[in-house]
Amino acid sequence: MRVKFDRDTCVGMFQCVAEWDAFEKDLNDGKADLRGSEEEEEDVFVVDVPDDEEFDAKFAARVCPVDAIEVYDDDGEQVV
C-alpha cells in the first residue's frame, strides 16, 4: 500500500495527524508533513505504508477535509 500526499492542497486542519502518526504538524507552514516520504513532484509526497498501519493510513485519508491524501493498493489502484 502507498500513500500520496498533496501538501499544496493541505489546509492544516491536522485531522490526519490525529489518525496516523506518519503525519505530523508543521506549525511554521500551517500544513502537515508526511514523515519518511519522498517528493514525487513539487509538493506531492509518497510513502509506502507498513502492513500494520494500513487501517490508520486509510482513515487519515478519509478524514482529510480537502482530499489531500490518496491511498493506493499494491496494484496501483486508488482505494481512498
UniProtKB/TrEMBL annotation:
<keyword id="KW-0479">Metal-binding</keyword>
<dbReference type="GO" id="GO:0046872">
    <property type="term" value="F:metal ion binding"/>
</dbReference>
<keyword id="KW-0408">Iron</keyword>
<protein>
    <submittedName>
        <fullName>Ferredoxin</fullName>
    </submittedName>
</protein>
<keyword id="KW-0813">Transport</keyword>
<dbReference type="GO" id="GO:0051536">
    <property type="term" value="F:iron-sulfur cluster binding"/>
</dbReference>
<keyword id="KW-0249">Electron transport</keyword>
<dbReference type="InterPro" id="IPR051269">
    <property type="entry name" value="Fe-S_cluster_ET"/>
</dbReference>
<keyword id="KW-0411">Iron-sulfur</keyword>
<dbReference type="Pfam" id="PF13459">
    <property type="entry name" value="Fer4_15"/>
</dbReference>
